[in-house]
């Protein structure tokens, strides 16, 4: 974090730094500082509003390390690990500041005149992952630390007799023998004759200039503090005769005060203790234990230890596993960094919620985890339940031996992302995970379909093609995409498009980290596939049509195949997003039988039938009925769809929910029960009458048949206990197996007609009973 305004103070005194040329040497690099600096300052065109420009960032990083190589400079990179056990107030305060920056970036139009130094910056979500990917690709030596990297950077610098390259002014306090190089003055783009111009800071020159005992530098750092803890904020500044801002005058005042202390006869430890006591007494404050701890950080920097299994620690250090696992295991906490998104909508992180639940389940053994994320305009913490497999399988998935059970690993990954990895054989390795993520993400977006949803999907797939090398010529495609990328900077920012892509990035990052934890059931992807400005420029129907026409050969075949598996228009799995939007709008706007309740203008007296693809051919004669068929939906998906309808003030006279087929595929009976209770509780916010239509018998697989039968028995009993109406379909379809198609899931056309008649009769009976007395839905629990 560094000391506030110390960098400015040093810049005011040229003699504190020596002009040097860097060549033929080792260099210890603060990795986090480097990727922040390269993304924010080395190229002003790198995007922050559209999710990031990772190809552009990769070019910048590669050019940096190529320059070091040309100058015979050997880099050693260290990256920070877990964030430590900060108090809740500090976490919320820090995230709140990041959120305000993200909102400012979202509102700031390109080309506006904002002073570079004070322009707010928000790091796109995949920058660190791309940076590590590049280090591996270029075979650059690096280590990902378990905690703060500063102690290991300091130790490595002195052990190898190398300077430190960073932006962190903490390295002005450490006694780094070969000095500190600030990235701001490390002019790698101006290399000449195999040398890089730079400015070298040494602690000895600083102490000599201010006549300060070097032993007191940690005391100066401690009382100067950072933006969270500072001593005597006004007193030292008022006593200083130096010109400039108050914060800089305060530092001058502290240095003058410490330099005048008479402590010659003491050893270094006693000097520091007495100097701190004198400073605290001087400003009439009570000594805070945090000042002593801060001093110790500089005097005896120590590495962070962890009780994580050895194989996990090794993967973290090699950059093969995210450091998020440290905070989750040690503190049961997940910090979700601020994103540039549409702040009128729920946080983009909700799109990857269930993937994180699997992630937490593996790391905590089923314990709750606390997430910090935005809720509207505020940062809030939320307790999140983990998702586990069956109890027998969970014993085999303990973190200690997770890397040994490959079959279960594949099963868990497929369950979390709702994919079959065996179906990915025709997809290039580097696209397998991004394609799985895209299918998962698009299915989630279909809960509230909009035309731009499909445009975003096509833009992503075209982006995959742009960065996919294949035999054959696609000159027109490459040329068109490059022209669009060059013109993308002039594209007006679209909040809804930005939000959809932000959701994809959240799904991508969490899937990448789950894949790492599961020892890569799918090959590591190329995160640089995503170029935000280009994709935003592509997310337009006319542009997509133009670009599609330029595809040729293998790229065209692959693109069409990816469209088919991501967006199955012709599989009979229900309408597309655009068709579903049109259908819903037509039904809701032209329904003459619907009438508004005069007591509440938002409640519309109609029936909503919602469920999975079992409803795809269902047609009801009951007037004023809207059918929402969501292929692949589980109970949680239906609740998510209802939430979106609720936000748009949709209300219904009755809500009929058909659920269970997809939930029963997974070994999570207790989770399914909780999810069904939850969707029922939410549905009754939108209707006074909520009912369930039970699952159909599944005859293709004995295990799933047993689960679905068990679910049907439980649902029937649970509805009865909780005053919820239930339509039992089991026996009717069990006696007529020809009414279910060969996949064992969906009804035939005759089966759909029978289900339609049963639903019509059931709904009409509800109307008759309602005339005698209203149906009461009590609070339900599983």
UniProtKB/TrEMBL annotation:
Belongs to the asteroid family. This is Asteroid domain-containing protein. It comes from Astatotilapia calliptera. Residues 569-602 are annotated as: Disordered. Residues 569-579 have a biased composition (Polar residues). InterPro entries: Asteroid, PIN-like_dom_sf. Signal peptide: none annotated. Residues 580-596 have a biased composition (Basic and acidic residues).
């Amino acid at each position: 974090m560094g000391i506030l305004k110390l960098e400015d103070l040093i810049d005011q005194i040229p003699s504190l730094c020596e002009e040097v040329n860097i060549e033929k040497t080792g260099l210890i690099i603060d990795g986090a500082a480097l990727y922040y600096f390269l993304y924010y300052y080395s190229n002003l065109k790198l995007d922050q509003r559209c999710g990031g420009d990772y190809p552009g960032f990769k070019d910048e990083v590669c050019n940096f390390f190529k320059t070091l190589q040309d100058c015979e400079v050997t880099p050693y990179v260290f990256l920070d690990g877990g964030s430590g056990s900060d108090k809740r107030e500090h976490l919320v305060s820090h995230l709140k500041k990041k959120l305000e920056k993200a909102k400012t970036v979202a509102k700031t139009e390109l080309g506006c005149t904002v002073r570079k130094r004070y322009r707010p910056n928000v790091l796109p979500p995949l920058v660190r992952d791309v940076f590590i990917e590049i280090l591996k690709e270029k075979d650059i030596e690096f280590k990902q630390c378990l905690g703060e990297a500063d102690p290991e950077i300091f130790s490595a610098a002195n052990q190898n007799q190398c300077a430190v390259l960073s932006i962190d002014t903490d390295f002005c306090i450490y006694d780094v023998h070969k000095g500190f190089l600030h990235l701001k003055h490390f002019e790698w783009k101006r290399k000449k004759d195999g040398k890089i111009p730079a400015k070298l800071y040494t602690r000895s020159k600083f102490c000599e200039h201010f006549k300060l005992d070097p032993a007191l530098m940690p005391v100066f750092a401690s009382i100067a503090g950072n933006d969270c803890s500072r001593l005597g904020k006004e007193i030292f500044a008022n006593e200083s005769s130096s010109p400039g801002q108050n914060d800089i005058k305060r530092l001058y005042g502290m240095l003058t005060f410490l330099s005048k202390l008479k402590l010659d006869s003491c050893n270094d430890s006693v000097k520091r203790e007495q100097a701190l006591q004198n400073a605290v007494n001087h400003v009439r404050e009570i000594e805070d234990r945090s000042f002593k701890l801060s001093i110790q950080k500089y005097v005896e920097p120590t590495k962070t230890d962890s009780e994580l299994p050895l194989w996990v620690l090794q993967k973290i250090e090699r950059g093969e596993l995210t450091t998020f696992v440290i905070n989750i295991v040690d503190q049961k906490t997940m910090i979700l960094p601020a994103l540039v998104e549409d702040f009128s909508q729920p946080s983009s992180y909700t799109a990857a919620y269930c993937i994180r639940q699997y992630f937490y389940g593996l790391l905590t053994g089923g314990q709750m985890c606390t997430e910090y994320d935005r809720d509207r305009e505020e940062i809030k913490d939320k307790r999140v339940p983990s998702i586990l497999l069956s109890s027998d399988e969970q014993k085999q998935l303990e973190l200690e031996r997770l890397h040994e059970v490959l079959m279960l690993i594949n099963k868990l990954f497929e369950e979390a992302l709702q994919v079959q990895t065996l179906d990915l054989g025709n997809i290039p390795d580097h696209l397998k995970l991004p394609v799985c993520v895209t299918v998962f993400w698009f299915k989630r977006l279909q809960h509230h379909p909009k035309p731009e949803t499909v445009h975003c999907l096509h833009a992503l797939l075209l982006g995959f093609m742009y960065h996919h090398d294949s035999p054959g010529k696609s000159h027109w495609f490459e040329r068109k995409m490059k022209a669009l990328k060059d013109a993308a900077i002039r594209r007006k920012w679209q909040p809804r498009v930005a939000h959809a892509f932000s959701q994809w990035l959240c799904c991508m990052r969490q899937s990448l980290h789950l894949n790492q934890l599961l020892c890569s059931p799918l090959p590591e992807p190329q995160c640089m596939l995503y170029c935000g400005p280009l994709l935003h420029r592509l997310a337009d129907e006319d542009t997509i049509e133009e670009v599609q026409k330029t595809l040729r050969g293998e790229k065209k075949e692959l693109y069409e195949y990816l469209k088919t598996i991501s967006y199955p228009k012709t599989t009979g799995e229900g309408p597309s997003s655009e068709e579903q939007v049109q259908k819903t709008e037509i039904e809701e706007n032209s329904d003459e039988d619907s009438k508004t309740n005069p007591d509440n203008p938002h409640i519309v007296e109609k029936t909503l039938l919602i469920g999975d693809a079992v409803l795809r051919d269902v047609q009801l004669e009951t007037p004023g009925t809207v059918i929402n068929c969501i292929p692949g939906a589980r109970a949680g998906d239906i609740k998510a769809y209802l939430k979106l309808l609720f936000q748009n003030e949709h209300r219904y006279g009755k809500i009929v929910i058909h659920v269970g087929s997809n939930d029963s595929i997974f070994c999570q009976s207790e989770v399914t029960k909780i999810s069904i209770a939850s969707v029922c509780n939410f549905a009754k916010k939108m209707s006074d009458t909520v009912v369930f239509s039970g699952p159909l018998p599944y005859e293709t697989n004995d295990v799933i048949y047993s689960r679905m039968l068990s679910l049907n028995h439980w649902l029937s009993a649970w509805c009865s206990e909780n005053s919820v109406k239930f339509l039992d379909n089991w026996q009717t379809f069990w006696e007529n197996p020809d009414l279910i198609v060969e996949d064992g899931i969906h009804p035939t056309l005759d089966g759909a007609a029978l289900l339609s008649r049963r639903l019509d009769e059931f709904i009409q009976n509800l109307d008759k009973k309602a005339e005698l007395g209203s149906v009461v839905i009590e609070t339900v629990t599983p």
